[in-house]
Write a structure and sequence with these properties.
Blueprint lengths: L1 H4 L7 H6 L5 H19 L10 H10 L4 H7 L5 H8 L3 E4 L2 E4 L12 H12 L21 H4 L2 H15 L3 E4 L9 E3 L4 E3 L13 E6 L2 E6 L2 E4 L5 H12 L9 H12 L7
Parallel strand pairs: 2-3, 3-5
Antiparallel strand pairs: 1-2, 4-5, 6-7, 7-8
Helix pairs in contact: 6-7, 10-11
């Protein structure tokens, strides 16, 4: 989606290069000439940059070979853009919702078809992009509250979303975990972005759901995903950490859970 609407923060040089063709240099020359004409037409003469070798070099560095082919492919009517915009932002399988970021209060009760339309149409150029569900911080592609907000504060929103859609679990990515699949809210929310990319350490874990049973495959070993309290969570994290090369990235999370368990429990009459 970011590629479609032009947020290119995470596009690497290698990705642009993979779109390059023998015609790339010609494309760049044409677009550079168009850039100069556009600046001349829109900027008073005294405010224009010097179109010297340094300006050209900087512009070319910002638009490497393959840049324009990449942008064409990701336009709403491009080969990749069309495919991306047809995909659904959220799906339901059995008693589980799957989406990238999470459901915020603004979208928690929106029917799935309406939510998908609210994301797809701006990416297809059929509706305004600004302020849409495709780009909003609280939209389904970007919302992090289910992953990061304190459970006491976020719990009402989680319960509202589950009830509205008649499901028991929400499975999300986007916000990477400390290194394995993590349950929140007693397993009502499951975080599955474990940091698989090399940038995050190449962590190896995924969620497996079979016959209503939830497991994590952590570095090739099946571990039962806990759906209870901190005691079960600690046992699970320690088992996963034992499979990691030392030091495990789960160590801080383990200490956090131990600290919670060590806190005095309120006395009730």
């Amino acid at each position: 989606a970011m590629n479609v609407y032009g947020d290119l923060r995470y596009v690497t040089a290698g990705e642009y290069a993979s779109f390059a063709t023998p015609r790339s240099d010609r494309y760049r020359e044409r677009y550079y000439e168009a850039h100069i004409e556009e600046v001349k037409a829109s900027t008073p003469a005294e405010e224009r940059p010097e179109f010297d070798d340094a300006h050209r070099e900087n512009w070319m560095a910002e638009h490497p070979p393959g840049y324009f082919e990449h942008r064409i492919a990701f336009q709403s009517d491009g080969e990749y853009g069309k495919w991306i915009a047809r995909n659904e932002a959220m799906i339901q399988i059995n008693d589980m919702l799957f989406l990238h970021g999470g459901l915020s209060p603004a979208y928690a009760t929106m029917p799935i078809d309406e939510l998908n339309k609210a994301v797809q149409e701006p990416l297809q150029g059929k509706a305004p992009l600004v302020g849409s569900a495709a780009v909003a911080d609280d939209g389904p592609l970007w919302y992090r509250g289910m992953a990061q907000n304190p459970e006491e504060a976020e719990s009402p929103n989680v319960e509202t979303a589950l009830s509205a859609h008649g499901v028991n679990h929400v499975v999300i990515g986007h916000t990477f975990t400390e290194g394995t699949v993590l349950p929140r809210f007693g397993g009502k929310v499951i975080l599955i972005d474990v940091g698989l990319a090399a940038y995050y350490g190449g962590r190896q874990a995924c969620l497996l759901v079979e016959n209503g049973q939830f497991h994590t495959i952590h570095r090739g070993k099946r571990l039962r995903l806990p759906m209870g309290g901190d005691e079960q969570l600690l046992e699970y994290l320690e088992a996963a950490a034992a499979l990691d090369p030392a030091p495990s990235p789960l160590s801080p999370k383990i200490e956090e859970v131990k600290a919670r368990l060590a806190e005095p429990q309120p006395v009730t009459n």
